[in-house]
Design a protein that fits this description.
Blueprint: E1 3-7, E2 10-13, E3 18-25, E4 32-39, E5 46-52, E6 58-60, E7 68-73, E8 78-83, E9 92-100, E10 116-117, E11 121-126
Parallel strand pairs: 2-11
Antiparallel strand pairs: 1-3, 3-8, 4-5, 4-9, 5-6, 7-8, 9-10, 9-11
């Protein structure tokens, strides 16, 4: 059974940083792709960033480029999301999700492209 366990998150002041972790089990980690998504209160869930776990190709939502960095540690079966220069607009519940990497050259920022989801973690940025 594929499971994703998230850690990190919390409360930070504007301009601060947080790192989220997403640890996978029950899967051949290198053969999967992982995405980070977020859902603010009253809004739809949106893609933040994604990575092909083994190959390392990544993508970012435009508003996150230069502030967020996604990475994968194949030895630890873990994907990280480093978030810098946070603003109150980044406040949301953040989710990681994973699915088989179809080796089509890219990952996906669509919520419909992922099969397994983490439990979510709250990120709150105060002004």
């Amino acid at each position: 059974e594929v499971q994703l366990v998230q850690s990190g998150g919390g409360l930070v002041q504007a301009g601060g940083s947080l790192r989220l972790s997403c640890a996978g089990s029950g899967l051949a980690f290198d053969d999967y792709r992982t995405g980070w998504f977020r859902q603010a209160q009253g809004k739809e869930r949106e893609g933040v960033s994604c990575i092909r776990n083994g190959e390392g190709t990544s993508e970012y939502r435009d508003s996150m480029k230069g502030r967020f960095t996604i990475s994968s540690d194949t030895a630890k079966n873990t994907v990280y999301l480093q978030m810098n220069n946070l603003t109150p607009e980044d406040t949301a519940v953040y989710y990681c999700a994973t699915t088989w990497d179809w080796n089509d050259g890219s990952c996906s920022l669509s919520i419909y492209g992922y099969e397994y989801w983490g439990q979510g973690t709250q990120v709150t940025v105060s002004s």
